[in-house]
Amino acid sequence: MAELEDSLAPTPVHSGASETDYPIFVVVGTGPVGVRCAQKLLELNQDAQVVIFGAEAESPYNRVKLSQYLSEQLSLSDIDNPIIGERNGRLAEFIDRPILAIDRANKTVTDATGKIQPYSKLVLATGSNPTIPRIPGVELENVHPFRSLRNTENLIRLREQNRHICVVGAGALGLEAAAALKTQKNRVTLQSRTRLLSGMLNEEAEDYLKSALGALGIELKIGDALTAIKGDDSVRQLQFASGETLETDAVVLCTGIHPETDLARQCGLKTDRGIVVSEWLQTSDPDIYAVGECAEFAQKVYQFVRPGYEQVESCSKHICREGNPDLSAEPYRGSLTDIQLKIAHIPCALIGELDRGKNSSGYADTSATDGSRLFTYRNRFKGLYRQLLVKDNYIVGAVHIGSWDEASDLRKAVARSESIAPQALQQFERDGYLWQKKVALSIKEQPDSYLVCQCNDVSKGELCAAISQGKRKLMDLQQATNAGSVCGSCRPLIAELLDVPAPNLVMRHARGILVTSIVSLILIALATFMPPAPISESVQTHWYWQKLWYDNFWKQVSGYSLLGFCLLTASLSLRKRWRKLTIGHVDHWRYVHSVIGCAALVVLVVHTGFRLGENLNLALMLVFLAATTTGALVGVFMARNHHWTDLKLREHRKWWSRVHYALLWTLPALLGYHILAVYYF
User: Fold this and answer.
1) Pairing state of beta strands 128-130 and 237-240?
2) Residues 368-409: pLDDT tens digits?
3) pTM of structure
4) 24 phi and psi, to 5 degrees?
5) By the 8 A CB rule, do 34 and 125 touch?
6) What whole-number distance in Å separates Cα of residue 185 and Cα of residue 653?
7) Which of 488, 552, 562 is nearest to 523 (CA)?
8) Residues 449, 418: Cα–Cα separation, whole Å
9) What percent of the chain has pLDDT over 70?
10) Can you tell me whether residue 296 is helix, strand or coil?
11) How far is CA 361 from CA 199, 241, 365, 366, 372, in A?
12) Could you tell me the strand order of the sheet in which 187-192 lies?
């Protein structure tokens, strides 16, 4: 690398790009868009030397997945974002080497070490910086922005060390950050002076989203501006415009971003909110391009990664077309501003044309004054809200809170301006589906044209072609097709296509549930096959075994303890079916359920002394053991189904769950008879 650095960064300016036999393309920025640009330039020009500079000390990573890393859905290796493809020594990467100056006259850039790098074409992918509100106390300890990997590592430590965290800002990043920071041991408050997602949702949709956040245990303080952060050295209290205060230990700022334009301004490029670019992403200097969050096209700055990738397509082809006139290139025409986020287990998306202005309450105005119509499906019990904006029989926008199997087809229909039949809209308002019944097709049953990765426009057919070429691991397939490299929401589909584990499908407490389920199966086997405890007439028998197994008082203690455990295990069913009961994540309840079930089996052994009983007592024992057996097996499958997708054991889990529920319904009657028989007879 040192030799390559010396050859690419000569100190004399006159030995620049103009005197080399090959073009030198320099990319400034190692974010997802900068990495994609370097990758495309290597791919499209087999002679070019590509040099990429990054200001951060970390190797390139996918910033879009930081929320998933914060929530422990992904590991550090899962967010790695290396430049892939055939390099052949044509790539030089300089990490922790920010560019300080651009010399447009001599076509060189100077980095922080003083090294001068010539370029034929320069691409600025400098991204954006977090906006820090100008309020008193923002410089106090435990006030953190959320933008970089280093910020995320700080927030992980913050989550474990503080009891109350306030997330300021209720945009997409704020929502994801609040969900990722919430644990059983802390409080998280989401605060914003405006509505959720800046009021892009109507009042009803926002109410559904608030309910979903409340189910996660996140407290909301919306519509009251933060005016001051108070404390001696560290945060202690927040002051709001209403005069109210909030005691807190830490503050996370998700208050927006602004384009990084300092480098462009210093060298005299035209800037406004961002670096002003043409349809080919050229700046006011034709040899300098800008892409991603730092670029301003048609007076618009895009703050999402997908528009940046679309800009890279036009930019890189325009750059490489000089050496390859046969290369077809399409100018950039702007991008859709879809918002797709996953707050814990709650998918949420805003698709297509949704910015229709705000009413007096600050919500998105859904009054259809332009001939468009709104169609809505809602299911309070399941927490599902879906709305379509239809104009002239075309779907032009959509919102959904909660999962929707047809979301991929919906985005494709909006992007391609596909017409929709009136019958489909009637079905949507009735069942919540446009193109299918309630039973969704699996990814393997979809046609090859089915769009799996929305962010990179990767179809099932492209994935299957890569798999047939030997790409049989998630990371290999991602590197070959770019599928799953942006938001990661399509990774479960890719995993199902590969029949391999998907890391972000792992249930919380999976290991604990697995251990307790296996211990339960062992106890069930002992209770079933161990010989009954003998009634010994010898004084050598340990007195405590005799008391536990045969003394009436201790038999009652163990019996009522067993009854209490059985009632506690039923609480999981109550948590899943009673909508108002929203305390804790359901995975936490599952873990407690499995622990209590295991404890109940221990008490059962103590209560019965390995005796199965006779007549109805035998029936009670067999039903209890069968119910706990199916429950333990369901626990094993829940904990391991992300590893066993190739065996399709999820279907077995479904049926064994039904058997488990059926057996549980018979237990109250048998237990009631058993208690009556003991006391009456």
Assistant:
1) unpaired
2) 546 788 999 998 878 899 999 999 889 999 999 988 888 888
3) 0.69
4) -115, 115
5) yes
6) 31
7) 562
8) 15
9) 75
10) strand
11) 9, 18, 9, 12, 22
12) 143-145, 250-253, 164-168, 187-192, 218-222
